[in-house]
Amino acid sequence: MKNFKYVIGWAMLLMASVTSCKKDFLTLSPTDRATGNSIVSDTTLFEAFVTNRYLGAILQEKEGSYSPPGFGRGFEYAMWSSVSDESIYTNNDGSWVLQQGQLSADNTGMAGTLWARSYRSIRECNYALSVIDGLPLNTAHKNRLVGEIRFIRAFRYHDIIRNYGGAVLIADRVTDLNSNLQDPALFKRASLAESINYVATELDDAASRLPLNNSATWALGRATKGAALALKSRLLLYAASPLYSAATWTAAAAAAKAVIDLGKYNIDQGGYSKLFLNPNSSEIIFERLYFSSTAIHLPIERANGPNGYDAWGGNTPLQNLVDAYPMANGKAITDPGSGYDPQNPYVNRDPRFYATILHNKSPYRGSTVDVYLPGGKDSNQGPSNWNTSSTGYYLRKFMNDSYPIVNPAGVAGAQPWIYFRYAEILLNYAEAQNEAIGPDQSVYDAINAVRSRSSVAMPALLGLSQATMREAIKNERQIELAFEEHRYYDVRRWKIAPQTENVPAYGISATVSGANPSGYSYVRKVALTGRTFKDAQYWLPIPLTEIQASNGQLKQNAGY
């Protein structure tokens, strides 16, 4: 199941249609064997080279050509949620070293490829920028390609910044493997402020060149003006946060407002769960596309579904996350007036809970999820019990029930991976504006727009102080953006990781009991011991191999 090899520059193919409507999608063509001479003399090959930079290094499974969801992610079945307080990965998969505070420069677990993958992509973008002027392209199209390349390069730098802190800003000096890699300047790390200012400037340039809309000549999946501005919004929100303190909250609010003012995006009213299956959602700002017949990602349903359905029970949600979902009346479960019953805990919760997490007796594929003991088919007394959730929960978000769990190759794995969606931008704005001046009407408008989508319809927030609004926004991000690679970074930038990560990974035990209204007795349990957070873990360690390759010139993060 898990023998992998790296494949560089793997290509996604053009899809001409989805369902009955003709659509234009990002075309990725194989460029792993193209020579430099052919790329700079053939505009079609050059453009294919550029669009392939969205992918980076991909893992290929021996029995199929799956690729992981995410921006060329270097990790596999374990999701980034499983190095936070959202989930744990049942069979480790390189995640426990981060969960248990055992990170070191030579033991980076599933985070080990982030540095090298990002800088390889930056070098490839530099190469494209160094040769584009010599290509016979019309001025307008060349301008868009430059914007696209700068966006991709900025995205890679943003990944370096949010994981490691100050970046090595190699600018345009390294374009290929023959560049002067002995230049000491190539190993000097910039400050956080310098790194963020550089990337923000790059994104301004990219936004000025990129089109507002995807079209027949700029395929769905390629970066647009909104994508560049959305990345700047996230970057400046992080920069203003306590861990960074490298920008102002006013600047972060303005960056989010720039996306809002495009007037292009809105909250999808077609259903919270359906949003993650629909590449044409009006809420999506930037996404990576997959297609079941040509270019698929890992079968999420098989990797994460319950063991009683012959799935692998991979990224299993924690009770830590479950407890964050309020009741449908908007009150936290700790509020005495909320109506929460710990022996009937899944009744009348925020609707996003049911769209994100499978719990005991959740409806699923014509049956129910049965984690109870004795005898529950999705418990450790069911089939494939080595894949049983240790938390008592399974992942629901992203799952497409029309895809098979058994033998999914060539059929499953076509859900888009969403990098930026409008809900994030509204929450970015609400947080930054609240920190800048307090909860004015625009803050309420932004957060309540997220809460009021038709499939959620949570009560509007009213009459909060700046401090209580701050906590409300943190909670809203935790549940609205769950499993979308935000929580790991949010708790660090807010500097609350010592509180969220230095607690056990909790789960739930369900046993049959006629004495309770639910028919079951629920007891909180520890699902994984040893969750530990140390101050050094605000940043990842740069891999030891990278430090050694620089002959010690590259400065390691403190504490490693």
Describe the structure.
With 560 residues, the chain is of the alpha+beta class. Helix content is 34%, strand content 10%. The protein contains 18 helices and 14 strands. The strands form 7 sheets. Strands 1-4 form a two-stranded antiparallel sheet. The protein has a two-stranded antiparallel sheet with strand order 2-3. Strand 2 and strand 3 form a beta hairpin. The longest helix is centred in the first third of the chain and has 26 residues, at 139-164. The protein is globular and about 75 Å long. The two termini are 33 Å apart. The model is unreliable at 1-22 and 57-65 (pLDDT under 50).
CA-based gyration radius:
23 Å
Largest sheet: 2 strands, antiparallel
Tally of DSSP helical segments: 18
The total of beta strands comes to 14
The assigned structural class equals: alpha+beta
CA(first)-CA(last) distance: 33 Å
**Biggest sheet: strand arrangement:** 1-4
Strand content: 5-15%
Shape: globular
Mean pLDDT: 89
Structural key phrases:
disordered N terminus; two-stranded antiparallel ribbon; 14 strands; 18 helices; 10% strand; 560 residues; two-stranded antiparallel sheet; alpha+beta
Quick recap:
This protein has 560 residues and is of the alpha+beta class. It is built from 18 helices and 14 strands.
Give the secondary structure arrangement, pairings included:
Layout: E1 4-8, E2 17-18, E3 21-22, H1 36-41, H2 43-52, E4 57-61, E5 87-89, H3 96-99, H4 114-131, H5 139-164, H6 192-209, H7 225-240, H8 249-260, H9 272-275, E6 284-288, H10 300-304, E7 315-317, H11 319-322, H12 351-356, E8 357-358, E9 363-364, E10 367-368, E11 394-395, E12 417-421, H13 422-437, H14 441-451, H15 466-480, H16 487-493, H17 497-501, E13 505-512, E14 520-528, H18 544-549
Antiparallel strand pairs: 1-4, 2-3, 5-7, 6-12, 8-11, 9-10, 13-14
